[in-house]
Amino acid sequence: MKEYYKIQSIYKRDERSHKFIEGDFSLPEIEYLKGSTWIFTEKIDGTNIRVFWDHETQQVSFGGRTGNAQISVFLYEKLNELFITDKFKEFFPETSLCLYGEGYGAKIQKGGGNYIPNGVSFILFDVLIGDYWLRRADIEDIASKLEIAVVPIVGRGTIQDAANLIKSGLKSTFGDFIAEGLVLKPEIDLYNWMGHRIVTKVKGKDF
After folding, report:
1. Strand pairing of 38-43 and 153-157?
2. What is the mean pLDDT of the chain?
3. What is the pLDDT of residues 130-181, one digit of tens each?
4. 97-126 confidence digits (pLDDT tens)
5. 46, 105 in Cβ contact below 8 A?
6. C-alpha distances in angstroms, 202 versus 22, 79, 170, 179, 183?
C-alpha cells in the first residue's frame, strides 16, 4: 500500500507562532494557481486510513498513514464491517486499488465525538489505481458501489475564498461545530514537474 503524500498548506508559517504568513505561499505552483478555481472539500479531523484490495489474492487489508501506524481495535472492527470482500469481488474482480480516507468518530482525536457521538466510521477522500489518482466523479462512483461515505464538497473558488471561509468560522457539514479545515484541489487535476499532484489545505488553527 502506497503511503499518502504530505499535503502542503497554502502559506508558509511563522517560525515562532506557527501561524500562517498570509500571502507567502508554500509552493510556487499554489501561488501561480491562486486565482484559479479550486474545489473545497471538508477536512475531517480523524486518523488516516488506507484500504487495499488485491484482486490477485482476493483479500482486503488495512493500514494507517504509515506502515508502522496502529489502528485501534474498535476502528479495525468497523473497517471489517464496512469493507466486505464480496463487494470488491463483484465490482473490481480484475483491478487492485487503494482507498484513502479518514477514520473518524468518538475516541478518535479530541473532537471526534462531534462527528459521531457513539461510534466510528470511515470516509473516503482519494483512490489510487496503479499509478493513477482518480477524478472526483470516479471516487464518488467507487464510494457508491462500496456503500461508503465520501468527503463532502463545500465550495468552489480561489485560494483566498477558501481562506476567507475558514477565517469566518466555517460550520462543519456534520453538525453544529466549526470545521477543522478544507482540502483544496484544482478544478482540473494538475501535477508539478516531479509528477506530484497539486493539492493544498487550510485549517482554522493556521490563522
Report:
1. antiparallel
2. 94
3. 999 999 999 999 999 999 999 999 999 999 999 999 999 999 999 999 999 9
4. 999 999 999 989 888 999 999 999 999 999
5. yes
6. 11, 28, 12, 11, 7
Buried b (16+ CB within 10 A) or exposed e, 137-163: eebeebbeebebbbbeebeebebeebb
Q: What is the 3-state secondary structure (H, E, C) of the chain?
A: CCCCCCCEECEEECCCCCCEEEEEECCHHHHHCCCCCEEEEEECCCEEEEEEEECCCCEEEEECCCCCCCCCHHHHHHHHHHCCHHHHHHHCCCCCEEEEEEEEECCCCCCHHHHCCCCEEEEEEEEEECCEECCHHHHHHHHHHHCCEECCEEEEECHHHHHHHHHCCCECCCCCCECCEEEEEECCCCECCCCCECCEEEEHHHC
Angle among Cα 152, 158, 159 to the nearest 5 degrees reads 85
Give the span between the Cα atoms of 37 and 39, in whole angstroms: 7
Residue of 124, 167, 164 whose CA lies nearest to 146: 124
CA distance 47 to 191: 26
Would you state the pLDDT for residue 110? 86
Neighbours of 82 (CB within 10 A): 17
Closest C-alpha among 207, 206, 201, 205 to residue 42 = 201
The pTM of the full predicted model, rounded to 2 decimals, is: 0.94
